[in-house]
Amino acid sequence: MTRPILLLARLNEADLALDATKSRLAEVVEAARKPAELARAEEAAAAAEAEVAKLRGEQAEVEQAQAEAEAKIKQIEARLYDGKTTNSRELDNSQRDLAQHRNQKAGIEDRLLELMVALEGATSRLNAAQADVARLTEQWTNRQAGLRAEYAKLKTRLPAEQARVAAAREAAPAALLRTYDHLRPRHGGRAVAELDGDTCSACRVQAPPSKLEEARFGEELVYCGNCGRLLWGE
Ligand SMILES: [Zn+2]
């Protein structure tokens, strides 16, 4: 007959291996997700793109207004200098009209200049954001291949590890399993600790000689007086 504690030691080892595979699987799935940094870079690129589009729209409108002002100025100048108008009051009116339109055109040109400066800034922000997106996307894509391979490998390992746990449980009496199942979640998955010399390998506290002997040779379960795990040794 195998000593009860050895049945549990074997079971705990199988459980811990399965735990490790499952937790690595979760990590791999998490690592394969789109990184937050990439999502932020994409948002920044979209915002910069919208800004550039808005400024270009405004630029087109202002250029249209500029063309209209120029046409109007040419029209007034033609009327002024064609020599047909001799009425001085009419000439004065045209002069005033011309000055007003030239003034308006100067204002439009100032606005155009502002827009060009703003566009230059927004365009360079857009280029930088797009470069970030490209770089982060490439990094992410490169990582995917390795993660996919690891995921597949871990998945194929699972059935054997699950079978090993099932077999170890099968070999242990029900009362022993109840003790184990009660302890395991309370001790981070490690319900059973092997002795390292005279020390509990989980919490590094020494066990008294009476416990050492029982843990190594006895049939009874022995608990570490410090961490409460089941102790075993050979
Ligand atoms: Zn301990």
What can you tell me about this protein's structure?
The chain is mainly alpha-helical and 234 residues long. The chain folds into two domains: 138 residues, Helix Hairpins (Orthogonal Bundle), CATH 1.10.287.1700; 60 residues, no CATH class. Helices cover 76% and strands 4% of the residues. It has five helices and three strands; from the N terminus they run ααααββαβ. It has a three-stranded mixed sheet with strand order 2-1-3. Helix 1 packs antiparallel against helix 3 and helix 2 packs antiparallel against helix 3. The longest helix is centred in the middle third of the chain and has 84 residues. It is rod-shaped. The structure holds zinc ion.
Summarize the structure in short.
With 234 residues, this protein is mainly alpha-helical. Helices cover 76% and strands 4% of the residues.
Features:
single chain; 234 residues; mainly alpha; Helix Hairpins; 4% strand; binds zinc ion
Q: Give the SSE order as H and E letters.
A: HHHHEEHE
User: What is the radius of gyration computed over CA atoms, rounded to a whole number of angstroms?
Assistant: 41 Å
- Note the main sheet: 3 strands, mixed
| CATH classification, class level of the largest domain | Mainly Alpha
Number of domains: 2
Give the helix/strand class.
mainly alpha
Give a list of the ligands: zinc ion
